[in-house]
């Protein structure tokens, strides 16, 4: 008997149900797995970007710390053009700031190992024609070498347009900001290159140091005679597309020799590419980012130009409104009456290597009103109480100048350029004389200062030899001088006893020689006082007759007889820098050197100290005057230091003793200063004259100098890496900051 077993199969509905349930279960399991893979990929990309950013920052910090200096990269010096689409999709150039940094590499090896145009390789001991700079150990202390390390952003392929296929940003009117492309991405990357601005070439058989024209334009070949050296700040040096879009070199504000432009432009870019290496990544890392509306991914525009943010910034540490430290102006053995009025001649900031600096001078205030004692010009000015300040900032031509209430007072850049080149009279030629002579307010408040942006020191003192206009006078001769004895006048006037004959002679103010003026004052002394009972004796050691010269009245050397900068009424704040004075005159001591020019010794400017042979006193600044009316009986006294009457005994003799520039000499009766020009030898300066060289300044103790600046002594590097892990994930932005101090900066 056959037993048949009935087998039951799944129905179609059951199979469909199982399949549906299985699909749901698989979806529940697989989707999180895939998402976890994406998250893992994103986390890996984020971690990789962080590590890469830290490594790049560390490398930049190391280059800066080991360098001999960092070039100022403010303004156009650290800017580069990038090519991005505008609101119509047309590629246009945009300038981005602080995206280029030049680091001065330290010197290495032995610079004397050069043979012809090449250097000796210390590893092989042989001349290597490919070695264009010395090779070897770093030379200490750090000094600048022949090469610079440059960090900059540019497209991975500079000859091709910008292409970012990973994210498609939108235009406000619709469409993509970047055209869709299946080509390899061409993002902006961060590059590093080390090159030599100068190399040696054989010219007429002689190895000559020239601009490295493989990498830099030679401005010596430019049509502009004021430019020289390599063009280090070309904002299109790695972007031929931007250069063409700007219309060539003329549109960039300088003229480039046509021998390089435009055909050799591409060659120069390729030369840079041969030296450069990408320090971020070749792909998926972008160093620029447009500002976008995150809700609709639309690019923000400023007019037709997109707002583009650089993701790397090399910026100096910024210090705002730093009050510069005033340095001590009077030291030991430089004691002088009214030293509390002497202002500093040097100010210092915490850091040097200024970049993008602005200097403000908050001058102390003083109204030169007539009046005794504390209202005299010898009083210390009160601290700034609001009102006008002096500002150093670029003028219309981009030069740094100091501006006052009425306009530019002195061109600081012009002074520095003239001084460094050894040109004639740099201070005088940098002044806006028309403004200074036409504005009483500017004369009252005028202060000249020249900052040294490398050291952070502000110099407020200027050499008297820098003031004048006669180019035919040699530098060493540009100092004021005063005769001791006038030709045709008997020196015996100073030794003959006083009598009526001399009192009836010419008045004292008709003489210029120090001896003759002293003699006339000595013999006419009693007749010059309004009340003889109040007058000091002519032989009074402190208040009697003095043999003196007044630097305010001595013109500068030369045919134009340019008045002294100390002239009354010219600069209200002017004073002599303590310790800068050097005085030469005829030797007053008996012996074989008698009458020949020697250097005199300064004695402290204290009334109780008498001046002896070959000695002098000098007023560095104005001193407080006595009450001439109450003490000596003078009427109608004018205490304004701008007032000067050469025929007035009070103004040009007595008040002169309280003015900056008054020099007292040996005033003992019967001891005239030798003045015989026949004394030999007559050189190096003619006998019979007194020569004074000094520096002058315009500062007072209550003046405040404030500087806003960025210091490349401490560079801040901000690096943001915009990474695209994969096409279905949004871009990642990783930001790392670092600071690096220039340890070997030249000071």
Structure overview:
The protein has 747 residues and is of the alpha+beta class. It folds into 3 domains: 211 residues, no CATH class; 167 residues, no CATH class; 214 residues, no CATH class. Helix content is 17%, strand content 26%. Strands 13, 20, 23, 24, 25, 26, 40 and 41 form an 8-stranded antiparallel beta sheet that branches. Strands 1-4-8-9-12 form a 5-stranded antiparallel beta sheet, with helices on both faces. A hairpin with an 8-residue loop joins strand 40 and strand 41. It is elongated, with a radius of gyration of 38 Å. The termini are far apart.
Give a brief description.
The chain is of the alpha+beta class. The model is unreliable at 250-260 and 490-503 (pLDDT under 50).
Helix/strand-derived category reads alpha+beta
Q: In DSSP terms, counting alpha (H) and pi (I) runs of 4 or more, how many helices?
A: 11
Q: Provide the domain count.
A: 3
Number of strands: 41
Mean pLDDT value:
82
Q: What is the terminal separation in angstroms?
A: 118 Å
Strand content: 25-35%
Low-confidence stretches: 250-260, 490-503
Query: What overall form do the CA principal axes indicate?
Result: elongated
In helices, the fraction of residues equals: 10-25%
Major sheet size, sense and barrel closure = 8 strands, antiparallel
In angstroms, what is the radius of gyration? 38 Å
């Amino acid at each position: 008997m056959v037993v048949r077993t009935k087998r039951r199969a799944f129905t179609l509905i059951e199979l469909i149900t199982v399949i549906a349930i299985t699909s749901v279960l698989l979806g529940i399991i697989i989707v999180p797995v895939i998402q976890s893979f994406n998250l893992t990929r994103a986390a890996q990309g984020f971690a990789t970007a962080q590590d890469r950013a830290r490594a790049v920052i560390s490398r930049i910090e190391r280059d800066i710390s080991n360098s001999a200096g960092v070039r100022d990269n403010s303004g156009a010096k650290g800017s580069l053009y990038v090519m991005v689409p505008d609101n119509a999709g047309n590629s246009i150039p945009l300038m981005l700031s602080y995206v280029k940094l030049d680091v001065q590499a330290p010197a290495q090896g032995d610079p004397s190992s050069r043979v012809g145009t090449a250097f000796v390789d210390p590893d092989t001991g042989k001349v290597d024609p490919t070695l264009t700079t010395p090779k070897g150990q770093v030379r200490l202390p750090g000094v600048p070498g022949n090469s610079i390390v440059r960090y900059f952003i540019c497209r991975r392929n500079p000859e091709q347009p910008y292409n970012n296929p990973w994210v498609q940003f939108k235009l406000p009117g619709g469409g993509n900001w970047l055209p869709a492309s299946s080509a390899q991405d061409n993002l902006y990357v961060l590059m590093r290159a080390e090159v030599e601005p100068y190399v040696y070439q054989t010219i007429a058989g002689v190895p000559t140091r020239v601009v490295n024209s493989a990498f830099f334009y030679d401005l010596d070949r430019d049509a502009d005679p004021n430019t020289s050296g390599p063009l280090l700040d070309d904002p299109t040096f790695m972007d031929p597309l931007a250069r063409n879009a700007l219309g060539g070199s003329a549109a960039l504000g300088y003229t480039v020799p046509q021998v390089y432009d435009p055909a050799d432009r591409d060659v120069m870019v390729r030369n840079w590419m041969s030296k450069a290496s990408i320090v971020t990544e070749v792909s998926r890392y972008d160093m620029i980012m447009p500002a976008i509306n995150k809700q609709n991914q639309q690019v923000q525009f400023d007019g037709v130009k997109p707002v583009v943010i650089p993701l790397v910034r090399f910026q100096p540490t910024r210090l705002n409104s730093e009050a510069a430290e005033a340095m001590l102006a009077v030291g030991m053995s430089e004691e002088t009456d009214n030293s509390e009025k002497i202002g500093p001649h040097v100010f210092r900031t915490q850091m040097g290597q200024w970049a993008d600096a602005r200097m403000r001078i908050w001058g102390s205030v003083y109204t030169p009103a007539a009046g005794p004692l504390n209202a005299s010009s010898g009083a210390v000015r009160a601290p700034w109480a609001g009102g006008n300040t002096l500002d150093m900032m670029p003028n219309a031509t981009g030069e740094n100048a100091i501006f006052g209430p009425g306009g530019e007072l002195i061109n600081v850049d012009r002074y520095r350029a003239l001084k460094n080149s050894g040109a004639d009279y740099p201070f005088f030629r940098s002044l806006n004389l028309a403004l200074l002579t036409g504005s009483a307010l500017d004369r009252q408040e005028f202060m000249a200062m020249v900052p040294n942006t490398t050291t952070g020191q502000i110099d407020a003192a200027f050499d008297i030899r820098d003031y004048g206009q006669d180019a035919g006078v040699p530098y060493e001769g540009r100092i004021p001088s005063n005769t001791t004895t006038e030709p045709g006048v008997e020196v015996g006037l100073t030794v003959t006893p006083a009598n009526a004959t001399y009192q009836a002679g010419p008045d004292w103010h008709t003489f210029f020689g120090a001896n003759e003026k002293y003699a006339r004052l000595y013999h006419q002394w009693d007749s010059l006082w309004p009340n003889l009972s109040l007058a000091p004796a002519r032989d009074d050691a402190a208040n009697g007759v003095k043999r003196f010269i007044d630097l305010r009245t001595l013109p500068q050397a030369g045919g134009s007889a340019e008045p002294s900068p100390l002239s009354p009424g010219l600069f209200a704040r002017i004073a002599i820098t303590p310790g800068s004075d050097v005085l030469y005159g005829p030797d007053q001591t008996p012996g074989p050197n008698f009458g020949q020019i020697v250097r005199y010794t300064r004695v402290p400017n204290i009334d109780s100290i008498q001046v002896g042979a070959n000695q002098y006193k000098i007023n560095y600044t104005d001193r407080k005057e006595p009450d001439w009316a109450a003490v000596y009986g003078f009427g109608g006294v004018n205490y304004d230091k701008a007032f000067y009457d050469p025929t007035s005994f009070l103004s040009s003799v007595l008040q002169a003793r309280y003015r900056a520039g008054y020099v007292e000499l040996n005033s003992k009766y019967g001891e005239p200063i030798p003045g015989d020009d026949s004394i030999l030898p007559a050189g190096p300066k003619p006998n019979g004259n007194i020569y004074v060289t000094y520096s002058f300044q315009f500062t007072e103790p209550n003046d405040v100098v404030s500087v806003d600046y960025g210091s490349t002594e401490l560079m801040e590097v901000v690096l943001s890496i915009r990474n695209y892990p994969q096409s279905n994930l949004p871009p990642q932005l990783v930001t790392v900051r670092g600071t690096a101090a220039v340890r070997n900066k030249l000071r």
